[in-house]
């Protein structure tokens, strides 16, 4: 059963053995990743010189469930733009947040800017791994 949605930064942290990898590992197997974020991970691994087939195998080996980017996620990603523009979040970031909101799961990321997104549960894997729930007037 899925307990989290992984951002590309979280998957890369795990695959590259960076600080915070243990927090990502704790969500596996079974964490979700949007197909948009999967494309980001493969892009970054290929930029580092890894062949795309090897990048795909590395992702398969960690046990994430890939979720197709559908119309509902696209709509919510678009709706998130006005809330996230000032924070500098990309389409990939918003795709992750949209999937997390639709599945009522936290989004796992290394990007501290996400802590400022309203109405989204975000777990930061660096900086103490602070878990932040931001929703109109409440935080935990």
Structure description:
The structure is a single chain. This protein has a single domain (5-139), classed as Rossmann fold (3-Layer(aba) Sandwich). Helix content is 45%, strand content 16%. It is built from 6 helices and 7 strands; from the N terminus they run E-H-H-E-H-H-E-H-H-E-E-E-E. It has helices spanning 8-15, 21-25, 35-47, 52-61, 71-84, 91-103; strands at residues 5-6, 32-34, 65-67, 107-109, 120-124, 131-135, 138-139. A hairpin with a 6-residue loop joins strand 5 and strand 6 (131-135).
- Topology as H/E string? EHHEHHEHHEEEE
By CATH reckoning, the class would read Alpha Beta
Distance between the termini: 24 Å
Count of helical segments?
6
- Spatial order of the strands forming the largest sheet: 1-4-5-6-7
Largest β-sheet summary: 5 strands, mixed
Question: What is the 3D form?
Answer: globular
List the helices and strands and how they pair.
Blueprint lengths: L4 E2 L1 H8 L5 H5 L6 E3 H13 L4 H10 L3 E3 L3 H14 L6 H13 L3 E3 L10 E5 L6 E5 L2 E2 L1
Parallel strand pairs: 1-4, 2-3, 4-5
Antiparallel strand pairs: 5-6, 6-7
List keywords for this structure.
Rossmann fold; alpha/beta; 45% helix; 140 residues; five-stranded mixed sheet; two-stranded parallel ribbon
In short:
This protein is of the alpha/beta class. 45% of the residues lie in helices and 16% in strands. The C terminus is likely disordered.
